[in-house]
Amino acid sequence: MNFGGWESENAKDKNAVDCYRHLHLYLKLDVVRIIESKYPGIHDKVNNPYQYGLLDCIELETYQLHNLEISEVKEIKDEIKKIKGKVKGIKEEVKGIKHTLDRILEHLKLQK
User: Fold this and answer.
1) Domain map of the chain by residue range?
2) Which of 30, 32, 55, 81 has a 20 to 30 Å separation from 12 between CA atoms?
3) pTM of structure
């Protein structure tokens, strides 16, 4: 049974068509065997329901948690950029100090 179209009609967003419904049927085994013989797509579906809980776990892990990890990686990357900028500034200061020390040492040599 598909109520997607009906729910879309009642939705605030008329483009919302992602609706989910399912129906559980309890049939006698002989009825199931007849249905299986007529509809190959249903073959071996007896007592083999789709594991929606497992699907939800996979979706949580692959989409939501990975997105969280990606945002944390972006934050770390931004922090590394800031640290690199600070290190570059420190290198420039050290270079300037070294230059000044070289000039002082050269000046002291001339005075000897």
Assistant:
1) 1-49, 50-112
2) 55
3) 0.38
